[in-house]
Specification:
The chain has 253 residues and is an all-alpha fold. The protein has helices spanning 8-28, 32-42, 47-71, 77-100, 107-127, 139-152, 156-166, 171-197, 204-226, 229-252.
């Protein structure tokens, strides 16, 4: 990719998208991949190339986000160890399959499921005070979340964060841990895409997403630390519901 062929004006919209998407992702544990991937596909980028570009950007943004969450002590290291290996395995498998076949057919069903989870989290956040419980369903969740993230171009946070919160996890610890694991997932998926598609899959949008995302990463971690558990849970429910509904509507058109 020849960056000299593009002006700052061409980069600016992608910097803004990367900043906004990472601010949400860092604070709520989801949305960077969904927002960025939807934008690229709407511009005509093929699904595999869009997912490759987004995950290349996430290799940088999630690294900065993970460091910030660690600094703010938002990471549950026991949960991290249970998520990271299954997540990476699922991500590599999803990237390989997306590079070979069209895995978009199941996307509307996954988005409908996530919309239902978002509504449940919203209701739970309004009606109940979040209580911490031991996570029982972690490794399979990481495997499925990693696979869907790579095959669908985003969704690791939406799938994993939402389900861990349903199981009764602390919003602050869940968001911080899922964001930190996502760095290893993004690097693994990017390496798989480079192996299968080559560097031609990456576009100028990737550079803009990196710049905006890295700048926003420390702010997202700070929001997670400062916002109380109940409003954080409600915000996760709202963002998940809105993004899922938009994805379902777009997939059905």
């Amino acid at each position: 990719m020849d960056l000299s062929a593009f002006t700052f004006e061409a980069l600016l919209p992608f910097i803004a998208i990367g900043f906004a998407a990472q601010l949400l992702d860092g604070a709520l544990g989801m949305a960077f991949g969904v927002i960025s991937n939807t934008l690229l596909i709407s511009m005509g980028v093929p699904p595999a190339a869009a997912s490759a570009g987004v995950h290349a950007a996430e290799s940088f943004t999630t690294g900065a986000s993970g460091i910030s969450h660690i600094a703010h002590r938002n990471v549950d290291w026991k949960l991290f160890r249970r998520l990271v290996i299954p997540g990476v395995a699922g991500g590599v498998l999803g990237a390989y399959i997306l590079s070979s076949v069209n895995a978009e057919a199941a996307r509307p069903f996954v988005l409908a499921y996530l919309c239902a989870i978002g509504l449940y989290l919203l209701w739970r956040g309004i009606r109940f005070h979040p209580t911490e419980k031991t996570h029982k369903f972690v490794a399979p969740l990481g495997l499925v979340g990693g696979f869907l993230d790579a095959a669908g171009g985003g969704g690791w946070g939406a799938v994993v964060t939402s389900n861990l919160l349903v199981q009764g996890g602390s919003p602050r610890k869940v968001v911080g841990t899922v964001n930190t694991v996502e760095f290893f997932l993004a690097v693994s998926i990017s390496a798989t895409f480079i192996f299968t598609l080559g560097l031609a899959a990456f576009t100028i949008a990737t550079a803009g997403l990196v710049i905006g995302g890295v700048v926003a990463a420390p702010l997202g971690a700070l929001v997670t630390k400062r916002v109380p558990a109940k409003p954080l849970l409600i915000l996760v429910g709202i963002v998940l519901t809105i993004t899922s509904l938009y994805g379902v509507a777009r997939a059905m058109l």
